[in-house]
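[09:14] KT: can someone run the structure on this one? pasting the chain below
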Amino acid sequence: MSDSPAALSGWSVWVAGARPRTLPAAIVPVLVGTATAAGSATELGWWRGLDGWRWAAAVIVALAIQIGTNYANDYSDGKRGTDSAARVGPVRLVGAGLASPSAVKRAALISFGVAALAGLWLAAVTTWWLVPMGAACFAAGWFYTGGPRPYGYAGFGELFVFVFFGLVATVGSAFVQLEEVRGLAVAAAVPVGLLATALLVVNNLRDIPTDAVAGKRTLAVRIGDRNTRLLYVALMVLPFLCVPFVAGLSGRVLAAAALFTVVLARIPVQRVLEGATGPKLIEVLGATGRVQLVFGAIFAAGLFWGVLPASVA
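[09:31] RB: done, structure tokens below
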């Protein structure tokens, strides 16, 4: 589906506004976090001791928060005028005049509402301490570009993405299965968070020219083009350095198969080092999302099926 404004109408407008390329950032931590909880029961069936309903609810929460955040970002940037006609990148509904600010804001609130309903069910069957954690996730999504002092405009976006789309989402997905925090989930969350952060970094790298003019002081604007490219490369390389430690120390050696994803990672890294700009970085963004999704799927599968008998409680 083309996301050119001229090619969009009806539901395709809202699908484009949800930014499908970013959705791996929501799905991967749930897959990996849930997989780390595998083997928690004495009797292991196909689900390896996991609760399928809790997993499904966690997926709904993660996707709805990601989509709600995307709509909220669209609304806030559109209202501020950050998404000007000079911007190169996936379509923005308010900035392109495809939807009114009030309609996009309503879409964001509906998405957050869906996440809240699924999250409340998870809290009811686990612990009500998930409620303030969920509220923090909603606040992080809204205030990235919303509110009087958005943290995304101050250069803290990457930190929040690592924390919420890495640590919180991964460990939280394991927690709703085990109802406790384990070291494996925390360790597995690190490469997940690094790849999610790489997605934001390449997005902000592309937008340096227009963000600088609009006064949006992202980390990329603050450290400049060259350093942002080096940061992106580091974020794409470090997850592969983490994998052997997670797989080896946990005894789930099948998780090391995620290392094969380095073949896919080579392409976007090479493009960034070669100086790709503008539309070429849109392709890099898509490639980064694919790396994240394939890495996460293989990593999660290895953690899920690699449970050794001695690790079963």
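[09:33] KT: thanks! The chain has a mean pLDDT of 89.
[09:34] RB: yep, looked fine to me
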